[in-house]
Amino acid sequence: MDNVGRYKILEKIGKGGMGIVYRALDTVLHREVALKTHTVGEDPEVQSVERFFREARVVASFKHQNIVTVYDLGHDRDKVFIAMELLDGDDLTETLSTGRHISLEDKVRIVECVADGLAHAHARGIVHRDIKPRNVFLTEDGTVKLLDFGLAHISQSTLTEAGQIIGTPFYMSPEQVIGERANPRSDIFSLGALFYELLTGEKAFAAKNIERIFDAIVNREPKPIREIDATVPEELARIVSKMMNKSIDRRYKNIEELLVELSRFTRFLDQCKNQLRAEARAAFKQLDTLAHEHEEIATRNSVTVPWERVSKTLDRGDLTYMSLVGLKDGANLQKRRLEKLVLAEAEHDDSEDETVAKAPERRGSVGSQTQSLEAVKKFTEALAQFENGDLAGSLRLVSETLRLAPEFEEADELADRIRLEIVKFVDELQEESGPENIDVLVAALLAIGSPGGENDILYGRSRHGQQEIAGLSDLLLQELPHERSKEKRKD
Predict the structure, then answer these.
(1) What are the extents of the domains in the chain?
(2) How far apart are CA 103 and CA 115, in angstroms?
(3) Which of 52, 143, 411, 417 could form a disulfide with 401 if both were Cys (CB 3.0 to 4.6 A apart)?
(4) 3-85: what fold?
(5) Positive or negative CA dihedral for 336, 339, 341, 347?
(6) Rg (CA), the chain
(7) Which residues are catalytic?
(8) Please, where are the H alpha helices in 180-306?
(9) 188: Cα separation from own chain's centroid
(10) What pLDDT, in 10s, does the model give residues 18-38?
């Protein structure tokens, strides 16, 4: 196929349930477009064709930065087509599958942009009905675009019969599953399922077949977000849970109410970041003081304090929430390590005067009466996260454990294991997939001060792809402009 109407086909770029998408050239206006075609044949199904054209008419009426722009609509031989703006970037499915790092702030921003686009559509009586990662596009310049209103429903229309299931199974609302008419709150549920996956890396309703998926959507609650990733703020997990409430009446009453909540959370997150920044700075100052007081012990055990660099980093306004978590927890972990080394040396000096050195008593075991139930719970979760390979989540939980119970020895031992894993994680990174919450680990590595470790990441000596490292939203370790960094690597 060379041409469809006035459009010259250049290459196929996608395929969906409602047609094939090509990159094409508009031979009249001389611009490239995304051309979505649908073969109708000699005896077309009227409902399918009407739905296809309705997509164009609906979207063409929208003027919103977060909704793809439609240029043209037509019919040529056995095909109908829609010409839309051609976007450079990837849809969210591609982005998630490549393991590209997305900061917590960007995850919230993506959902806010989709919600903003939906508010524009809902205000005009349109329900999208197929919110999913494949229909959310991230352009090269960071703009979020909502795609494919092919399943959009005009509230007053009777084109779609009640009882007909339309949508993508993993993200459908309970009312869609049982065949009821979708409404704006159905889009909120689907966006909640997308948000859940964005935050956890797991689908909210995963199962081996469609029947079990539908059963989970209607009858079962997804695994709590913070059980999967303890670094997700509790308030954000609450918002997603409300979005995915199985009862329509218990979800947000409209998309505008959700946007207010997301905006409130963003302000709350800014306050948390200010607090984290202050706590991290205080921890580093304490570590720096301790290292100067016990310089010989710190030097002998490679306890370094990159104070000047850390101070500059903490002054940056673009640090992510997760990076600040890593800096604070990493600094406290390193401070605790040095305190233990100092104490061990003092105990060793004292024991030299004794004929028989006694083994130190173990303090604060898991079964000890001295530990609070909350500390034991945090430690158990931290250990589980560590065993599952989630260093960032484990670091956060073990830090909370030691804050609640400073004498918890098993937690101390786990903290040392986490520190060692963070120090060596650079050499274990693979180009095709990075660790969870890499910004936490990069920040913790800087806080821990492993000699040269952060430079291995920055200057490309690790096996982790430089492109992905450079793409970290915080660019935590990249104090030099990117081009200068590349020049330094060549030296």
Answers:
(1) 3-85, 89-253, 272-352+364-490
(2) 19
(3) 411
(4) Phosphorylase Kinase; domain 1 (3.30.200)
(5) negative
(6) 27
(7) 130
(8) 184-200, 210-219, 225-228, 234-243, 255-293, 295-300
(9) 19
(10) 678 999 999 999 999 999 887
**φ and ψ at 153, to 5 degrees?**
-125, 120
**In this structure, what token pair is assigned to residue 308?**
């000047």
What are the CB-based long-range contacts (under 8 Å, 24+) for 464-467?
A: 464/426, 464/429, 464/430, 464/431, 464/434, 465/431
Task: Show Cβ contacts of residue 482 under 8 Å, excluding neighbours closer than 6 positions.
Answer: 470
> How many residues are recorded in the chain?
491
Please report, as a single letter, which amino acid is at residue 28. V
Q: How many CB atoms lie within 10 A of CB 480?
A: 13
Pairing of strands 136-139, 89-91: antiparallel
Query: Cα separation of 186 and 190, whole Å?
Result: 6
Answer yes or no: are the C-beta atoms of 252 and 185 closer than 8 Å.
Answer: yes
> Is 163 within 8 Å of 140 (Cβ atoms)?
no
Helix, strand, coil shares, percent, the chain, to 5: 55, 10, 35
Write the Ramachandran bin of 37: left for phi over 0, alpha for psi from -120 to 50, otherwise beta.
beta
Fold of 89-253: Transferase(Phosphotransferase); domain 1 (1.10.510)
- For residues 305 and 277, give the distance between their C-alpha atoms in angstroms, rounded to a whole number: 17
State the helix-helix crossing angle for 104-122 and 184-200, rounded to 10 degrees. 170
- Cα gap 95→489, rounded to integer Å: 28
Structure-token match 């199904």, residue found: 45
* Tens of pLDDT, residues 181-232: 889 999 999 999 999 999 999 999 988 889 999 999 999 999 999 888 888 8
Q: Which pTM value belongs to this model?
A: 0.80
Token pair of 252 as six digits:
């947000």
- Strand-pair partners of 22: 12, 35
Dig out the tokens for 242 from the structure. Answer: 């409300």
Helices (H) and strands (E) in the chain, counts: 19, 11
Q: Which of 19, 133, 124 is nearest to 82 (CA)?
A: 19
Q: In angstroms, rounded to a whole number, what is the distance separating the alpha carbons of residues 335 and 283?
A: 7
454 versus 292: the higher-pLDDT residue is 292
What SS3 state is found at 355?
coil
Ramachandran assignment for 315, one of left (phi > 0), alpha (psi -120 to 50 degrees), beta (any other)? alpha
